[in-house]
Amino acid sequence: xxxKLLLVGCGKMGGAMLAGWKQADPATVMVVVEPFGPxxxxxxxxxxxxxxxxxxxxxxxxxxxxAVKPQMMDQVLPAYARYADRALFLxxxxxxxxxxxxxxxxxxxxxxxxxPNTPAAVGRGIxxxxxxxxxxxxxxxxxxxxxxxxxxxTWVAEESQLDAVTAVSGSGPAYVFLLVETLARAGESxxxxxxxxxxxxxxxxxxxxxxxxxxxESAEQLRRNVTSPKGTxxxxxxxxxxxxPQGMAALMRRAIAAxxxxxxxxxx
Length: 268
Fold this sequence. Notes:
Elements: E1 5-8, H1 12-24, E2 30-33, E3 47-49, E4 63-66, H2 73-76, E5 88-91, H3 98-105, E6 110-115, E7 125-131, H4 137-148, E8 151-155, H5 161-170, H6 172-189, H7 194-214, H8 219-226, H9 232-240, H10 248-267
Parallel strand pairs: 1-2, 1-4, 2-3, 4-5, 5-6, 7-8
Antiparallel strand pairs: 6-7
């Protein structure tokens, strides 16, 4: 990666991306702008400025990654409009649309909007991207390279699909963590000590995820592999997969629909 990068904001997600970039290419030049002051633990070769006005005049970024919270974007974004004639803008701010950024940066700006998720912090994230019409193949390749540093990357055809992406993968880690919590509590109810129940639940979810990642089989087939006819797993699945509003499939559809609708509301 030989591009010059300007990272605006270095919280958890911005910091995760920065770590991924430095690991992939330690020689990459970056300037980090942090509205709340310099974050701790940055590599020594990362130049930090705390105000956009202090960015050196001779630093011309190829890409500007916007990693500040959505509610801060109105006050932060105008300072970077001066780069709109040459830099690619990549936003990871939830709910801020391509049209929103064009309002600040101009109709000719090259903008990519991304929805990553928190496993990016350990290099296991997945990001869905959408670009405006000004982004060419080179710009798309750069955006993909930047997000690939923290996990998988996929593209959506329509910006509206990012609402469902937010519901499935953006919010999805919370559903998995809830599954760990409920599985552990159910283990306690069945007679296990709390620490042991949580250890079993955590290890089971982590191990199953890694098996799913490495396997060439579908999730459905992996489920079937665990399920013996008339066995213990089948007894549990008969409950979880029951027809009707209380079955897991119906609950998940309602949950994803609620999150998708909320994403649309937040986008205005």
